[in-house]
Design brief:
about 220 residues, Rossmann fold, Arc Repressor Mutant, subunit A, about 55% helix
Length: about 220
């Protein structure tokens, strides 16, 4: 079998070197390129067409989520693992919405990372179990014993769908031809109607209700 061809994108040289040594030391994997920022990752992904991309989320220039989104637009079949220090649920949702097939913390051990690369190469999806447990816990908290929600207006539903896709307020305003102030006000109204307190909870609620799907194209 030919080796799994890997692109590593991380703004820390030591991290890239460590990942290269880990992957190539086991056999069956070949690091074909390294990128130190999101813009390089996008260019190298297009030029080399790797089998799997290990993508840091927070980098200089173009960040990891934007890089994932750009790569997926150019190559929808790209298989990307977000590899990050960030446990926040919104980072995970943003990365998966952008097109990542996996979301792992950099604290993952070497064996689990290698298994994840192989699994994503096969076409599977993987989320770090610690983050998955937190998302499920928060989702359960959002959905359990909620008061009856007020119906959302058409414009509020449009905003909520974009929030669930990880779109920031300024881009929601541009997409819907609103001011940022209007978007902020309507978001507050949405939170009140759904009995939630933040964007992550609102996004989880929309996903749970089936108002938006993780595989729905991002705006």
């Amino acid at each position: 079998m030919p080796p799994v061809r890997i692109l590593i994108a991380d703004d820390h040289t030591l991290m890239r070197q460590g990942l290269r040594l880990l992957c190539e030391g086991l056999g069956g994997f070949l690091v074909i390129a390294e990128a130190e920022n999101g813009a390089q990752a996008v260019a190298l992904a297009r030029a080399t067409q790797p089998d799997v991309i290990l993508m840091d989320i927070v980098m200089h220039d173009v960040d990891g989520v934007d890089a994932i989104r750009q790569i997926i637009r150019a190559t929808p079949t790209a298989r990307i693992i977000a590899l990050t220090m960030y446990r926040q649920e919104q980072f995970m949702l943003d990365a998966i919405r952008a097109g990542a097939r996996g979301y792992l913390l950099k604290t993952v051990d070497a064996e689990e990372l290698i298994k994840a690369i192989a699994a994503v190469h096969r076409g599977d999806y993987l989320i770090d179990p610690v983050i998955a447990a937190r998302v499920l816990s928060e989702l359960h908290g959002v959905m359990s014993e909620l008061p009856r929600i007020e119906p959302l207006s058409e414009s509020e539903m449009a905003i909520l769908r974009l929030v669930a896709q990880g779109v920031e307020n300024q881009y929601i305003a541009q997409a819907l031809n609103y001011s940022v102030y209007t978007v902020s006000n309507r978001l507050r109204a949405i939170y009140e109607k759904l009995h939630v307190t933040n964007r992550t909870q609102a996004a989880l609620y929309a996903l749970r209700q089936g108002w938006v799907a993780l595989d729905e194209p991002s705006t």
